[in-house]
Every structure is written in C-alpha cells, then in structure tokens.
Amino acid sequence: MNQRQKPFSPSCERNRGPILNILSAYLPDHKRLLEVGSGTGQHAVYFAPKFPDLTWVTSDRMENHEGIKAWIEEAGLSNIEGPLSFNLGEDSFPAANIDIVYTANTFHIMPWEMVQELISLSGANLEKDSVFIVYGPFTYDGEFTSPSNEEFHQLLRQRASHQGIRDFKNVNKMFENAGFQLQEDFAMPANNQTLIFKKIR
Questions:
Q1: Theoretical Cys-Cys bridge with 197: which of 88, 113, 131, 132, CB 3.0 to 4.6 Å?
Q2: CA–CA separation, 46 vs 108, rounded Å?
C-alpha cells in the first residue's frame, strides 16, 4: 500500500491535539498502552512519538490491519507494535502487561454487548492502578449534549440498529462493575467527552 492509498480520517486530524492535551497528563506514568480500534492508524503514529518511553500497541479487526500497517511502516517508529487482531466477541484480550487502554470513537459504533465485553475484558486483564481512557460522544441521563449529537445518533441508528451514542450512566456502571472508578470527565471540542477510569481493585 503506497502513501496515496493510506486510509485517512479527517476527524483524527481534528481531534488529535485536544486528545493529546489529556493524554499528556496520564501516559507518562505508564509503560504499555493498548489502543482498541486503531482504525486508520493515524492516532498511533501521532501520539507514540510524543511518549518515547511508552510502547503503543495497536489493535483492530483484521480488515483494518493493512491501513494501520501502512501508517506504521511510513512512520518508522520503534515504540509502536501491532496491529493485533482484536475482534470483540471472538478474540481474547490481545496483549500482556498492558497498564493503560485507550479507545476513540468506538463505543457508539460497536454493539452495546461488545462495549460491555471490552470493559469486562479490561477489568479482568488489567492490574490495579491501570487506566482506561475513552473518547467519544455520550448522553447524560438520556439527554444529548447538543442538537448535532442527537442528529448524529439518529444517523447512526439508521445506518445500523446496534449503533448509537451511549449513556454515561450505563457506561460508568459497567466500569464500576469491572473494578474501575471514574477519575475525570473532560468536555472536548465537537461535543465529545474524554472519560478517564482507574482500576481500583
């Protein structure tokens, strides 16, 4: 796959700066990060060189691996691994010694059962004091944070019945059941949030 054929996500370019501001407060304390749903690979090659002491492990469904590899190979960074196969509902937790999980714009795409599976697997495989960072849109007590998010939710539901913006209360409850506790809920540009959860047991 040559440079012209690399997949490209405009949203990755737009949101990477604000997300980096959040990651900078958490990643330096950790050594091995698993990115769930690496997508195009753009986030990995942008964030990894900012944290040279951290190993950034990419993962996704197999159909996205070629594009992720193209970005990684072009970047030539020594602290990126993968992509690993991680198809929720089929694959086990794909990497060992992970102390931080990061995922962006996945919870509203995956079926709710897969969101639950990801949180449950993370709880079972991460040690105490590990961190889970999730970026994307959420509702609060069933209320959308903006009219555009409500429109987006409707578009998602029309595209696939299993997709849709998740409610914070349900997500937080799943994390609590898996041994995590919410640390921060940051409002982000474009009506998104970054949620930081810490494994407390």
A1: 132
A2: 23
